[in-house]
Design brief:
Strand 5 and strand 6 form a beta hairpin. The protein has one domain (6-134): Rossmann fold, CATH 3.40.50. It is globular, with a radius of gyration of 14 Å. Helix content is 51%, strand content 12%. The longest helix is centred in the middle third of the chain and has 14 residues, at 62-75. The protein has a six-stranded mixed β-sheet. The protein has helices at residues 10-17, 23-35, 44-56, 62-75, 83-96, 100-111, and strands spanning 6-8, 40-43, 78-79, 116-118, 127-128, 131-134. The chain contains six helices and six strands; from the N terminus they run E-H-H-E-H-H-E-H-H-E-E-E. With 144 residues, it is an alpha/beta fold. Helix 1 (10-17) crosses helix 2.
C-alpha cells in the first residue's frame, strides 16, 4: 500500500455513535478503529457538524458528544480551514458542482495532503485534485 493520508467525513462519525444505524453503525466503528491506526486526520468542520447533528437528532447529549469529540481529538490530528481553503472550496463549487460545505471539507483535506476522503457525500472513486473520494459503505475494504 502506498503512503497516503486519510480523512473521515461527518457521516462516518455519526454512524459510529448511532446504534440505530444497523450495519452502517457496525461498519463505521470498524472504519474509525482502523483509521486510528493509520495516517488519518479529521477536518475541524467534520467535528462541528458531528456535534450539531448528534445533538439535534438526540443521538447524544451535548456532554456525551463533547466527550466523544475530545476522544477523537486525542486519536486524530484535527485540521482547519484557511483563507486558501475557502478560495479552493468556492472554485470547486463553480467548477465541479460540489455543495459548498462538502467543498470546504475537500479543500481542507486537500491542504492537509489527504489522498483518500472517506464519505458518502461525494462521487464514489472520483478524484479531485489528488483527493480520491470513497464511500466506505459501498466497498469491502475502503483502505485497500
Amino acid at each position: 500500500m502506498s503512503a497516503r493520508r486519510i480523512a473521515l467525513d461527518t457521516n462516518i462519525l455519526f454512524y459510529a455513535v448511532d446504534r440505530d444505524a444497523g450495519d452502517r453503525h457496525r461498519r463505521a466503528i470498524t472504519i474509525v478503529a482502523r483509521a486510528a491506526k493509520l495516517d488519518c486526520v479529521l477536518p475541524l468542520q467534520v467535528l462541528c457538524e458531528f456535534f450539531a447533528a448528534v445533538t439535534r437528532k438526540s443521538r447524544l447529549s451535548a456532554a456525551d458528544a463533547t466527550e466523544q469529540i475530545e476522544d477523537w481529538k486525542i486519536l486524530f490530528p484535527v485540521v482547519s480551514a484557511s483563507p486558501r481553503s475557502l478560495t479552493r472550496a468556492m472554485r470547486a463549487v463553480s467548477e465541479h458542482g460540489l455543495a459548498f460545505w462538502d467543498a470546504m471539507i475537500w479543500a481542507v483535506a486537500r491542504e492537509a495532503n489527504v489522498t483518500v476522503l472517506l464519505s458518502e457525500d461525494f462521487g464514489h472513486e472520483e478524484i479531485l485534485d489528488g483527493v480520491r473520494f470513497r464511500n466506505p459503505f459501498r466497498m469491502a475494504d475502503p483502505f485497500a
